[in-house]
Amino acid sequence: MSVQPLEDRIVIKPADAETRTESGIYLPETAKEKPMQGKVVSVGPGRRLDNGERVKPAVKKGDIVVYGKYAGTEIEIKNTTHIIVRESELLGVIEG
Asked: What is the 3-state secondary structure (H, E, C) of 3-67?
């Protein structure tokens, strides 16, 4: 099963939550923060303008992006959690 997003929506596979701090302390499940970055799995065709033209999305499959903590809608694809967000909910693309 795969999901092809519509319009300006993007499917993201969130990065795994950190299991320990930089100083080496292991975090219990209740203390882990929700990840706010992930890898783009699929991109819709883009937003349609009033004149009928489409605006090509600024991200592509494989990009690592940053999004808001509570952005998007969580879905499950092949027993893996993914998030569908609108392009406007993305905060940036991580380069390098």
From this structure: CCCCCCEEEEEECCCCCECCCCCECCHHHCCCCCEEEEEEECCCEECCCCCEECCCCCCCCEEEE
